[in-house]
Specification:
2 copies of one chain form a homodimer. By secondary structure, the first copy, chain A, is an alpha/beta fold. Chain A has 10 helices and 10 strands. The two termini of chain A are 34 Å apart. Chains A and B meet through helix 3, helix 4, helix 5 and helix 6 of A and helix 3, helix 4, helix 5 and helix 6 of B.
């Protein structure tokens, strides 16, 4: 691992530069990856909110989930921040008080280097983009400290894959993390999570428009059906059985007739099918299939104990960091017992806080997430 | 609905004919389907075990699940019966005492008419095969009574989709069912079950070798990847998160290296991925993709209350039938609460029996199913 973060590459902006919630970037040079690959040029895109104090002590790093991005709170002319209930002026992660920094993950499609980025030959990386891990993501983000003139994050925080990234941050750079919040996540991807991920990857690869990953330039936009199927699968794991039952039951979608006629292709849909179609279409409109694949495989690799003597050893060593571990009680993807196990493996004194919601995993993103305010206030001090 | 079951079509065998567990069939003529389609020629394949008593009072109808078939117990020269732990000489469904009849579902690929069957033009039905429901399946099976000279089944029994079929049998032909066992099933497919089914259907349709359903004759065997992905998805719902975690954890498969190298297509697999690959390959080797699609859509349509004033009215009317309702406590596809709701809607006196097993839905098929022996003995008398 080597990151050429000093001096800051020409053309990048400085900490005091742009307005809150506008994209900025940092050129890191070459990156040697954990599992052997190499990227000759890495750009990290990020956004910030608030003002960094002179001592650099009020910087909060917010890490996004699988299909998230750096726009965690609202920008100057939008109200699109994906966690705007929790991050903003006067919110629990108060941008009048904290300097919030949110990077876009390496391997994604939200600005940082990923499979759709041009390789040195000018063509998109596509199938040639190397395997990356959550540790590779953390390594790129480490460069933000030097760039912004910060010694340690006041807090590193994330939910779902963002929580896994936060935990990796703490385990990899413990001297540079004062507090860490890991929400609706776990210490290592489980067999179940790996299985669900495998299916999503397979759905993308199955689409004939995937072309092995080199679909850029196709008029049809590439493997949008495969990516849509992956999203359906993922979304089902983000919601609870009970929530789907209460919202949709066996209702047909509008006037559609799900009890098919003799013409099989024209069978109408149930409401829950239409809902999943909508979730698929929304993601397909904003996400690159190769990026989905890359980040999903990175998440499969998540194991904070890898190369550290196992999870107990890795987490037990994090004496100097104050942790908040939270779970959604109805989460069926990141089970509450996985948060409990994580808390138990950390140094003594960490208990799990709960979001009580029937919604499932997505509870950490919806209005239910305001239940995190008391424990976050306690953590943030 | 019209079934031309009398006289028995030429070439079909009689009740006393073939050896236990060998295929036989019945030509039913034309079938008008519940949702408007029509099949001009329907053949029902079935197998039997044991001897029918003169009064016809010892006949047990066993209905298979989504990818099951008529070979419920062992044949004369095999030990392949999919429920051989429960059905056979001296077993709880004792073929020395009962005359067991097991049909292959309409729309499947286990002998009865389905999408791979030649249409009147001599070509496989393929994309032209009509939408069928569980009631259409029951309608074809009703002809077995006349053919075999039986007035009513001593017991109708099934698990999973077989349980849904058994419940439909009881609700459609209550005068012809004395006892009914519904195992690991429900009264109507839920939003969750519909969502999981939709994804499986989409996986098959996404495969470029599907060709809209008219893939017969392709040298590559048709949409085997899509069917494999559908099976992975289904199989995950048949097993519990805990079982997968205990069996596989994050283990790599043999000497494979899941932390991919720079060559993305050569990433090694986790053990749980290999397990799902194996499950997919096993199904693909024995099942037709159009049949999977047809039966999956039939299962999506399952609602015993349809056209009967709702589930409570439909089940509350079944006064004359003795029921056994059983659930697997760890089932995440057919939740125990769905069995509880079904029992509550039946006439008073029905409580849910449980298979206690960490394995999940498949508990009704594995060795854990021997826990059904006491309640089945009670039901069978």
């Amino acid at each position: 691992m080597s990151i050429d973060a000093e001096p800051v590459a020409a053309g990048t902006t400085q900490a005091s530069g742009p307005a809150d919630g506008t994209p900025r970037s940092l050129d890191l040079g070459a990156l040697e990856l954990e599992t052997g690959g190499r990227l000759p040029e890495v750009r990290l895109t990020f956004q910030t909110w608030g003002r960094l104090e002179a001592d650099g002590g009020n910087a909060v790093l917010v890490l996004h989930a699988l299909t998230g991005d750096a726009h965690v709170a609202d920008g100057p002319e939008d109200s699109d921040g994906w966690w705007r209930d929790l991050v903003g002026p006067g919110k629990v992660i108060d941008t009048d008080r904290f300097f919030v920094v949110a990077p876009a993950a390496l391997g994604g499609c939200a600005g940082s280097t990923g499979p759709a980025t041009p390789a040195p030959d000018g063509e998109p990386w596509g199938s040639r983009f190397p395997f990356v891990t959550l540790r590779d993501m953390a390594a790129t983000e480490f460069a933000l400290l030097g760039h912004l003139g910060i010694d340690a994050w006041h807090t590193v925080i994330g939910g779902s894959m963002g929580g896994a990234r936060a935990l990796e941050w703490a385990a990899t750079y413990p001297a540079h993390v004062r507090r860490c919040a890991v929400l609706a996540s776990c210490a290592a991807s489980t067999a179940e999570q790996i299985a669900l991920s495998q299916m999503q990857v397979e759905a993308i690869r199955l689409d004939p428009a995937f072309e092995g990953g080199d679909y850029y330039g196709r008029a049809d936009g590439g493997p949008i059906r495969g990516l849509g199927l992956a999203r359906r699968l993922a979304h089902l794991s983000y919601r609870s059985e009970a929530e789907l039952g209460q919202r949709f039951g066996r209702d047909p979608q509008g006037s559609e007739q799900p009890l098919g006629s003799a013409d099989r292709e024209r069978r109408g849909r149930y409401a829950v099918e239409s809902y999943l179609d909508h979730q698929a279409a929304k993601l397909v409109g904003r996400f690159d299939a190769n990026a989905y694949l890359t980040i999903t495989e990175a998440l499969m690799s998540h194991d904070v104990g890898r190369g550290r003597g196992g999870i107990e050893a890795a987490l037990g060593a994090l004496e100097g960091i104050e942790f908040l571990i939270a779970a959604v009680d109805s989460d069926r993807l990141y089970l509450p017992e996985q948060s409990e196990a994580m808390a138990a493996a950390l140094p003594p004194g960490v208990s799990v806080d709960y979001i009580r919601s029937p919604i499932g995993h997505d509870g950490f993103l919806t209005s239910a997430a305001t239940q995190l305010e008391p424990p976050l206030r306690r953590l943030l001090g």
